[in-house]
């Protein structure tokens, strides 16, 4: 049986917000190029990318992006290569200096932080996992994992102990004395992950961490992230260009195009209600029965509906509902919070499944 | 650990074995030889020609062996040696060829050096040809006939004229003016170094090539190949007063010694030795030949000469 | 007026460049016929311009104020004394009698053992054996003390180079601004022929070891700065970013990421600096730097080829040892941190053992005569005498029997190529040459080079040595043509055949480090005192670089491309001319550029063997007080020629490269 695109294990993001969001971004811009600061807020900013480049020599890598991420949520940013994802995620840690806009980390204004405070935040509050790992080839795996703690000034014995624990956590027990280039790509990225986890950050940023890996290993690593999220419950901002990855991991997905946000929503929202043709093209090949919940295929309750059929929750994925719906003579009742919100019949289910056939 | 232990054992045993034989190094303070009158260190500039080297070899040998001085030889060009007087880097220049300009600067103006008498060597500068040429064309040693042969002296360097080869730029030369003023159909070509000049004469003699060039005595090479002097209009006092109008042979030089003021005033026995030092061209050539051709070290060449000529040098250290 | 107008050049820009080039030369030759001999700015050797006199006066003024001027007592003297202290200390360790002892503190046994163990610790067993053999050979050749003097000076210079150069290089790796400022300065330091600054240096730092070390510093510092900066700049950005993202400070990044990752490259820089230092220390014998260079210079005075070669051989051996050890150390950089804890422990034990052995050797060589004085006959050493005699015989034989052939070669090149070219360049009016040079530079390198070239030409006129410079330029061009012909022929051969490469490369290495003074005498015997001898000396020095660059370029052409060409039926000749050389073009242009610079750096040596012109003037200025200023001006003229040629060829190479790329895109 193929694995579900949406893991049942996922910890639902805290829906009730107590305190500030983990991350709040508003009207964020990043323009590369000469006199980049003179673009935002002028009509030039409205120009499409190629024209802006022609006129000013500047590239608007991130344009006017706003979103919030709740604590423990997995927030995925997705887009084609060049759409500005890496720049965006680096703006969130100020590895790239934003041109304008606000970034609040747990309510604290990141852009107002001075260098010292910024270092503090980087050392304690968040950590990042990179596409090309960025490991230090001259250090053992253990020392790579301990690197963040070393930077922070943790004593040697303590940081090595902690790094050892993290190695167990990321499944690299026994590789402590290896050097990065003695490991496979997947294992190297586990080291990268371990390095980020070792400092026990509250937010983890991932910049396409698995793009450089083989598909099979990529799947493993995605499971690993899900498992870790389950175990340690960190807030995660995850960049990918792979829709399947986005759908598997994301509580919510931000779709970017040419630097701007096209749509923000839950996976089923993105698949079920694409914001425009761009997104529609994107999701065209997704097996909808794996993503859509029956909420997306139900119809309103009619007066003449027989109510003796079985009940299913509104968040059950279509594929999991197929058997129940088809084997029941009567339409299935869709229930949410104990209330009947709609009905699903054979035809609705079949429409989704048939549409997926090539 | 075991290995290290063995290693240490081996090393220790080896050390003991080695220390059992062989004599120890003695510091010079406790050396057996009684030191003579306090002489100190003498810094002798050694200019880049073998005749000078011969002077320096003999003086250094005597100063070390007879007077117990420490001698430091410094290989320097003339100009740079004179600079050394002021800074204390050089105490002695043993064979000075003229240099009125340097004398003016360092003796008269800066007053850091003093003249210290003649070496007894006579410097003869002039134009020379290889012996085979003088033999086959005896009239070539008269400058009046040079133009007759100018064609034969042509080379790839002389631009259609006869070639007159000059050597080390350290030496004062009037040759460009001479060629012009004597209306010779020659071009001055700079060999650039004494080595190049000697090699050219050597090849010319060996392979019977036509060649005329600037040379000088005393010079060890003359003991190997007896170059023949070409007679220019004879030197008369003052005929070289205006360098641009020179049309006569070079004045014979009396080579002299220069020492730093400080050294002269030091009362060192080496200063007396250098002041008294005087010998002939033959003496110098003998030592120079041993150094240059017979490949003796400076010390060995000096020793050989010293042993054979004690009557000469005894006079230098008497007073 | 003969200057081509800008419009004409632009209009003509559509013609192929080689046509334009030919056109300009043709016009030049046509104009030469009526104009030659006019306005050549000739100056006879003893004539001085007011500039030269002013330089003489300046020299005198500096000389006279040395005692009183605070600039000297507070600056130059301080530097000199510091350098002197270091040098004298190193010399008293290994080469010169010191502290009331008749021998240095460490005798030959101590030096050999310590050097060997150090080579083992820094590199591996192979280089340790090489080091032991090499160091022993210094003694066997009879030059133990001289070799140690050379080594002491080299070490002193390298230490100072590293102490200044590595931090500066790291800084330049971090700061774009410093990098921009430093690059032209380093370019200049490297293009300036070494002899040119020897005379002025003694003015400020006097003669002796300190000046020798300082001259060496100037020459040997640029590589380590440049290569360190390059290493720091090319550290994988992803590692730096990862460090930053974890909150590393700049200093932490430098210490934990940048320097460790650049270490291998930095050690390469150290290697280059060591090699440069060694070659310069030998030349510094001219200002009384002690060591093997002195032996070579002395031997030159008595035309003693054998002795010169013997000392040259010791220098070559030292160069090989230092090169191999630093190269092994570079490879070791990576291997070292890979040692597991067990291997690390073992290594520590081995090193401790080595330390004990070294201490024992030091003690023995400090205490016992047999371990202090290298055994063997004084002067000639155990084998030195035979080596020298053999080489002298061989050299005599060659001179005696090949004279006719070599004369013919000299005359062919001189009459066929050099004299016509020199007549054209040096006999044209200066304005004509200037216009032609500007036009040609524009054609090959683009309009942006024109101001630089114009400034260089203007300054050349101002030195008062225009004609001399043109004579030198002609010889330089001929030498470079020969260098490139050799470079391409031999380089292609080496690039295509591993066997040829293995055979030739060691010879090239040796030719590069063998001091030129060693082979001047045999060349003089073969070719006489002439410009051609100078050209041959320059070719021997410059060709190895060009050959290696071309060989590496040809080797770097992807095998698949060559395979494709061969499989489509190309002959070997076609593969070379149509595939390998065009693809190795960057290397070939670099070879031409480097060849030119190397040839120019031999101009002064050429002056010693009959090249005349600028080279002779530098030598003359060095030894005749009247000509001091003129010699200095000649040195500056050499530098100007260097800057002119270097900039133009570099710009031409860049432009050619850009042109190829553009062509490919279309
Ligand atoms: N440092 C930079 N300077 C200039 N342009 C940049 C820089 N970094 C990224 N860009 C440009 O910004 C755009 C977005 O890049 P990036 O954020 O890397 O996209 P993604 O990660 O989605 O592939 C691209 O057009 C890229 O060329
Ligand atoms: Mg990216």
TrEMBL record, chain A:
Residue ranges of domain ABC transporter in the record: 47-283
ATP-binding found in the keyword field: yes
Domain of life the protein comes from: Bacteria
Record's signal peptide: none
SMART domains to which the protein is assigned, alphabetical: AAA
GO molecular function: ATP binding; ATP hydrolysis activity
Descriptive protein name: Glycine betaine/proline transport system ATP-binding protein
Lineage of producing organism: Bacteria, Bacillati, Actinomycetota, Actinomycetes, Micromonosporales
TrEMBL record, chain B:
InterPro entries xrefs: ABC_Gly_betaine_transp_sub-bd (IPR007210)
GO molecular function: transmembrane transporter activity
Residues of the ABC-type glycine betaine transport system substrate-binding domain: 41-307
CC annotations in GO: ATP-binding cassette (ABC) transporter complex
Name used for this protein in its record: Glycine betaine/proline transport system substrate-binding protein
Species whose genome carries this gene: Asanoa hainanensis
UniProtKB/TrEMBL annotation, chain C:
Gene Ontology cellular component list: ATP-binding cassette (ABC) transporter complex
Transmembrane portions of the chain: 18-35, 103-121, 151-174, 194-220, 265-287, 307-329, 349-371, 449-467, 473-495, 507-526, 595-621, 627-645
Entry keywords, A to Z: Cell membrane, Membrane, Transmembrane, Transmembrane helix, Transport
GO terms for biological process, alphabetical: choline transport; glycine betaine transport
Pfam hit, one: BPD_transp_1
Topological type in the membrane: Multi-pass membrane protein
GO MF annotations, alphabetized: amine transmembrane transporter activity; carnitine transmembrane transporter activity
Main location: membrane
InterPro entries: MetI-like, MetI-like_sf
Localization per Swiss-Prot or TrEMBL: Cell membrane; Membrane
Domain ABC transmembrane type-1: 147-326, 469-649
Family designation: Belongs to the binding-protein-dependent transport system permease family.
This protein's name: Glycine betaine/proline transport system permease protein
Originating organism: Asanoa hainanensis
């Amino acid at each position: 049986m193929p694995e579900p695109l949406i893991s049942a294990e996922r910890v639902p993001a805290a829906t009730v917000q107590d305190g500030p969001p983990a991350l709040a971004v508003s009207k964020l811009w990043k323009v590369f190029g000469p006199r980049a600061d003179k673009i935002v807020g002028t009509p030039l900013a409205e120009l499409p990318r190629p024209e802006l480049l022609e006129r000013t020599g500047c590239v608007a890598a991130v344009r006017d992006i706003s979103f919030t991420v709740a604590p423990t949520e997995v927030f995925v940013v997705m887009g084609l290569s060049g759409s500005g994802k890496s720049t965006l995620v680096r703006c969130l840690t100020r590895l790239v200096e934003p041109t304008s806009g606000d970034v609040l980390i747990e309510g604290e204004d990141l852009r107002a932080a001075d260098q010292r405070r910024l270092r503090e935040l980087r050392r304690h509050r968040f950590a990042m996992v990179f596409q090309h790992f960025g490991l230090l080839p001259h250090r053992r795996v253990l020392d790579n994992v301990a690197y963040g703690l070393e930077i922070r000034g943790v004593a040697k014995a303590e940081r090595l102990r902690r790094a050892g624990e993290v190695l167990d956590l990321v499944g690299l027990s026994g590789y402590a004395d290896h050097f990065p280039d003695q490991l496979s790509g997947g294992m190297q990225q586990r080291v990268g992950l371990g390095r980020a986890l070792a400092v026990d950050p509250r937010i983890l940023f991932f910049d396409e961490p698995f793009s450089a890996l083989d598909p099979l290993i990529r799947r493993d690593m995605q499971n690993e992230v899900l498992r870790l999220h389950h175990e340690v419950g960190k807030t995660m901002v995850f960049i990918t260009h792979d829709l399947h990855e986005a759908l598997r991991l994301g509580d919510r997905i931000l779709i970017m195009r040419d630097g701007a946000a096209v749509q923000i929503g839950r996976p089923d929202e993105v698949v079920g209600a694409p914001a425009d043709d761009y997104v529609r093209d994107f999701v065209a090949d997704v097996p909808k029965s794996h993503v859509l919940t029956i909420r997306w295929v139900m119809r309103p309750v009619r007066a003449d509906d027989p109510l003796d059929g079985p009940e299913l929750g509104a968040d059950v994925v279509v594929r999991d509902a197929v058997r129940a719906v088809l084997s029941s003579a009567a339409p299935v009742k869709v229930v949410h919070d104990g209330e009947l919100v709609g009905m699903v019949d054979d035809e609705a289910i079949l429409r989704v499944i048939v549409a997926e056939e090539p | 650990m075991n290995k290290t232990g063995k290693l240490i054992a081996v090393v220790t045993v080896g050390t003991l074995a080695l220390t059992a034989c062989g004599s120890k190094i003695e510091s010079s303070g406790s050396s057996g030889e009684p030191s003579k009158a306090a002489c100190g260190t003498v810094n002798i500039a050694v200019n880049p020609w073998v005749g000078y080297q011969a002077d320096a070899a003999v003086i250094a040998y005597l100063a070390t062996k007879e007077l117990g001085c420490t001698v430091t030889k410094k290989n320097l060009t003339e100009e740079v040696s004179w600079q050394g007087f002021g800074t204390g880097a050089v105490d002695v220049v043993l064979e000075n060829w003229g240099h009125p300009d340097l004398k003016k600067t360092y003796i008269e103006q800066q007053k850091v050096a003093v003249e210290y008498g003649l070496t007894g060597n006579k410097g003869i500068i002039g134009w020379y040809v290889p012996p085979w040429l003088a033999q086959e064309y005896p009239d070539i040693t008269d400058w009046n006939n040079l133009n007759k042969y100018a064609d034969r002296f042509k080379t790839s360097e002389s631009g259609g004229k006869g070639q007159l080869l000059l050597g080390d730029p350290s030496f004062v030369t009037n040759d460009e003016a001479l060629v012009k003023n004597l209306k010779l159909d020659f071009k001055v070509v700079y060999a650039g170094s004494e080595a190049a000049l000697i090699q050219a004469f050597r090849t010319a003699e060996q392979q019977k090539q036509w060649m005329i060039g600037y040379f000088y005595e005393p010079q060890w090479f003359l003991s190997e190949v007896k170059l023949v002097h070409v007679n220019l209009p004879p030197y008369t006092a003052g005929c070289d007063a205006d360098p641009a109008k020179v049309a006569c042979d070079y004045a014979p030089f009396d080579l002299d010694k220069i020492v730093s003021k400080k050294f002269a005033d030091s009362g060192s026995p080496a200063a007396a030795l250098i002041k008294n030092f005087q010998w002939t061209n033959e003496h110098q050539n003998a030592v120079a030949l041993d150094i240059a051709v017979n490949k003796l070290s400076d010390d060995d060449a000096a020793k050989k000469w010293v042993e054979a000529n004690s009557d000469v040098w005894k006079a230098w250290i008497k007073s | 007026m003969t200057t081509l107008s800008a419009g004409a050049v632009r209009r003509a820009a559509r013609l192929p460049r080689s046509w334009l080039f030919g056109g300009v030369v043709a016009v030049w030759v046509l104009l030469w016929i009526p104009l030659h001999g006019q306005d050549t700015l000739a100056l006879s050797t003893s004539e001085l311009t007011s500039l030269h006199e002013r330089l003489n006066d300046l020299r005198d003024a500096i000389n006279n104020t040395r005692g009183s001027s605070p600039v000297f007592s507070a600056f130059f003297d301080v530097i000199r004394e510091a350098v002197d202290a270091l040098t004298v200390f190193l010399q008293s360790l290994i080469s010169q009698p010191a502290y009331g002892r008749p021998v240095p503190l460490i005798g030959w046994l101590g030096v050999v053992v310590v050097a060997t163990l150090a080579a083992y610790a820094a590199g591996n067993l192979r280089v340790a054996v090489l080091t032991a053999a090499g160091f022993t050979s210094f003694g066997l050749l009879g030059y133990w003390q001289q070799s140690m003097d050379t080594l002491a000076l080299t070490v002193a210079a390298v230490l100072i180079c590293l102490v200044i150069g590595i931090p500066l290089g790291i800084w330049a790796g971090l700061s774009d601004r410093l990098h921009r400022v430093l690059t032209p300065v380093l370019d200049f330091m490297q293009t300036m022929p070494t002899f040119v600054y020897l005379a002025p240096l003694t003015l400020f730092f006097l003669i002796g070891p300190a000046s020798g070390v300082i001259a060496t510093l100037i020459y040997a510092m640029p590589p380590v700065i440049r290569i360190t900066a390059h290493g720091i700049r090319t550290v994988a950005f992803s590692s730096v970013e990862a460090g930053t993202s974890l909150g590393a400070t700049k200093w932490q990044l430098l210490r934990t990421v940048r320097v460790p990752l650049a270490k291998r490259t930095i050690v390469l820089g150290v290697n280059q600096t060591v090699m440069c230092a060694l070659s310069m220390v030998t030349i510094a014998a001219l200002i009384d730097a002690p060591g093997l260079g002195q032996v070579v210079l002395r031997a030159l005075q008595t035309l003693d080829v054998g002795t010169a070669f013997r000392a040259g051989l010791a220098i070559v051996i030292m160069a090989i040892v230092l090169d191999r050890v630093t190269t092994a150390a570079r490879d070791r950089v990576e291997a070292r941190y890979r040692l597991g804890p067990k291997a690390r422990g073992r290594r520590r034990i081995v090193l401790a053992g080595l330390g004990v052995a070294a201490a024992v050797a030091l003690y023995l060589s400090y205490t016992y005569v047999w371990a202090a004085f290298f055994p063997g006959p004084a002067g000639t050493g155990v084998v030195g005498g035979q080596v020298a005699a053999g080489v002298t015989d061989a050299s005599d034989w060659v001179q005696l029997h090949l004279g006719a052939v070599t004369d013919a070669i000299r005359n062919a090149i001189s009459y066929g190529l050099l004299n016509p070219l020199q007549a054209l360049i040096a006999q044209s009016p200066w304005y004509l040459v200037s216009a032609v040079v500007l036009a040609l530079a524009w054609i090959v390198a683009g309009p942006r080079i024109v101001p630089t070239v114009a400034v260089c030409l203007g300054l050349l006129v101002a030195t008062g040595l225009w004609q001399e410079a043109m004579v030198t330029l002609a010889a330089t061009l001929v030498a470079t043509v020969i260098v490139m012909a050799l470079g391409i022929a031999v380089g292609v051969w080496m690039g295509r055949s591993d066997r040829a490469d293995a055979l030739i490369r060691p010879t090239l290495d040796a030719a590069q480090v063998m001091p030129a003074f060693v082979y001047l005498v045999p060349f003089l015997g073969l070719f006489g005192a002439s410009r051609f001898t100078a050209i041959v000396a320059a070719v021997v020095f410059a060709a190895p670089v060009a050959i290696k660059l071309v060989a590496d370029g040809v080797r770097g052409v992807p095998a698949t491309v060559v395979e494709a060409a061969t499989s489509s039926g190309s002959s070997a000749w076609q593969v070379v001319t149509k595939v390998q050389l065009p693809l190795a073009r960057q290397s070939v242009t670099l070879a031409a550029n480097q060849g030119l610079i190397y040839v120019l750096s031999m101009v002064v040596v050429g002056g010693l063997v009959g090249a005349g012109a600028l080279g002779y003037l530098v030598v003359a200025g060095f030894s005749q007080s009247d000509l001091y200023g003129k010699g200095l001006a000649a040195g500056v003229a050499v530098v100007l020629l260097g800057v002119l040629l270097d900039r133009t060829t570099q710009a031409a190479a860049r432009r050619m490269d850009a042109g190829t790329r553009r062509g490919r895109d279309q």
